[in-house]
Amino acid sequence: MFAFLRPDLARLQAYIPAHPSGNTLDRLDGNESYLDLPAELKQKLAWMYQELIATNRYPDGGHGELKEAIVAYVNNYKPNSPNSSQHDSQPRITPAHISVGNGSDELIRSILIATCLGGSGSILVAEPTFSMYGITAETLGIPVQKIPRHAQDWSMDLAAADTAIATQEQSPVRVVFVVHPNSPTGNALTVAEINWLWSLPENILVVIDEAYFEYCQHSLVGELVDRPNWLILRTFSKALRLAAHRVGYAIAHPQIIETLEKIRLPYNLPSFSQAAALLALHHQAELLSVVEQVITQRQTLIQELTTQPDLQKFFRVWSSAANFIYLRLQNEQNVDSSQILAQIIQEMQSQGSLIRHTGGGLRITIGSPEENQRTLTRLATVVDRLL
Ligand SMILES: Cc1ncc(COP(=O)(O)O)c(C=O)c1O
Question: pLDDT of 331-347, one tens digit each?
Answer without folding.
Answer: 888 888 999 999 999 99
